UniProtKB/TrEMBL annotation:
The keyword RNA-binding does not apply. Residues 111-308 form the Peptidase M48 domain. Residues 1-22 form the signal peptide. GO terms for molecular function: metal ion binding; metalloendopeptidase activity. It comes from Soonwooa buanensis. Pfam families: Peptidase_M48. This is Peptidase family M48. Binds 1 zinc ion per subunit.
Length: 430
């Protein structure tokens, strides 16, 4: 579950220009080349599985990974990933560097850069490493980046995904793992990802164990590489700070400021909200474990355990310098914030983030232009009755009050009103 709808590093956002936003048709050739390589590697990986495991177990594992690779392929075709060489080569270089000092790490990873603003990285288990653009935007330097990568590489060497799959297959033998039939959720881009998450979160206790062993092996990889060890813990601390941030909020006055336009006056009715007071929030919150709401659970525990197990961390110094190369990538990733929402068709969240930017920078041209684009997308969706796909429903138990106010506003708008807003703002770039 996503806790934050406004990405917190937004505050650090340098003002960007909309000129950097192109739908990435130029990526087509790279995407095609990647898909060919990905297919070959997937087949090799599945073949190795067949060798290592036998009988029913091998068949089921291969079946799951084959279907999983198909969903990833579909997600790639759906442009969920960026094939910007700067991010891909950088990540590849870092993996190779860490592997060069730690010979047990494989080097034939398929690297995917997700157009996702959440600071995170994943290892799908078949030597596919996914790094979110949001991770580049969020981290301060390459040491923190290498720390996260080391941790993900450790998951691969420890074969955590395969082991989890085997446990799951043994647990629900009669129930088939319905990988390929995974239902599409509100957003059509979540397919492979939702599957991976359902696997990851299926057993919290085991997950915690896996995280701890990946932290530990990852630390050893990282240390061997000669990187400043304090930064390893720092990377976890930053992710923890991200999770701990208070609920997102934008002031209700922003609606009148942004949506009272020369071609259409603001209507107070747009802000009307349904009365959700019948929901007992506390009751709901107590029912859900706090950790399960977090993107990165257990972080406090894991940080303390690392400090306990590696006393040398107490006397080591943080290196807070960033190389020009990392800074460049980090800034590029920040510029992609709103375009990422557009390309991954999270139009509602994109508009919400535009409003957050406009609160601090009311005249920011690029943001106004993106706002226009996003409203045009919402208009198209409204006309074809597909708005549900791009704009969240109101869920009082899961969303902040501010986000509920936003969703109410969006759902209250009439189709022509949406059109007028889109038309007005799309001209902002000029
Ligand atoms: Zn992990």
């Amino acid at each position: 579950m996503k806790k934050l709808y406004i990405i917190v590093f937004l505050l650090l956002l340098k003002l960007f220009s909309a000129q950097n936003f192109k739908i990435d048709t130029a990526d087509y050739a790279k995407r095609k080349a990647f898909l060919e390589l990905y297919k070959t590697r997937g087949e090799q990986f599945n073949k190795a599985l067949k060798k290592k495991y036998s009988g029913q177990e091998a068949r089921e594992l291969v079946n799951v990974f084959t279907n999983f690779q198909k969903s990833v392929t579909e997600d790639i075709k759906d442009k969920m990933y960026s094939f910007d060489d700067r991010f891909v080569s950088y990540t590849k270089d870092r993996v190779n560097y860490i592997a060069s000092k730690n010979p047990t790490i494989p080097t034939d990873f398929s690297i995917l850069i997700a157009k996702d603003n959440e600071p995170n990285a994943y290892n799908f288990g078949d030597k596919t490493l996914v790094v979110n653009l949001g991770l580049f935007a969020f981290l301060n330097n390459e040491f923190e980046f290498d720390a996260i990568i080391s941790h993900e590489l450790a998951h691969q060497t420890l074969e955590h995904t395969i082991k989890k799959l085997i446990a799951k297959l043994n647990n629900d033998k009669d129930k088939k793992l319905e990988v390929s039939n995974l239902k599409r959720s509100g957003n059509r881009y979540d397919k492979a990802f939702e599957l991976y998450k359902s696997l990851l979160y299926s057993n919290m206790k085991q997950r915690r164990k896996n995280e701890i062993s990946a932290d530990s092996l990852g630390f050893s990889y990282y240390k061997t590489t000669g990187l400043p060890i304090a930064n390893y813990v720092q990377s976890l601390q930053l992710l923890k700070d991200f999770d701990d941030k208070k609920e997102d909020s934008i002031d209700v006055s922003i609606y009148k400021k942004v949506f009272n336009i020369p071609t259409q006056s603001f209507k107070e009715d747009w802000l009307k909200m349904e009365d959700f007071s019948k929901y007992n929030y506390k009751h709901y919150q107590e029912k859900v474990s706090q950790d399960s709401l977090k993107t990165h659970p257990d972080l406090e525990f894991r940080i303390n355990l690392l400090k306990k197990n590696y006393p040398e961390l107490a006397t080591s110094n943080l290196n807070s310098q960033a190389s020009p190369q990392f800074s460049l990538l980090s800034n590029l990733a920040k510029e992609r914030l709103i375009p990422n929402f557009i390309e991954s068709e999270k139009y509602g969240q994109g508009i919400y983030n535009c409003l957050a930017i406009l609160e601090d920078n009311p005249d920011h041209k690029a943001t106004k232009y993106y706002l226009g684009l996003l409203f045009n997308k919402i208009y198209d969706a409204r006309k074809t009755y597909t708005l549900n796909r791009y704009l969240d429903k109101i869920e009082p138990t899961k969303q902040s009050r501010s986000y509920q106010q936003f969703l109410s506003f969006m759902w209250n708008l009439g189709v022509d009103e949406i059109k007028n807003i889109g038309q007005y703002y799309e001209k902002s770039e000029n």
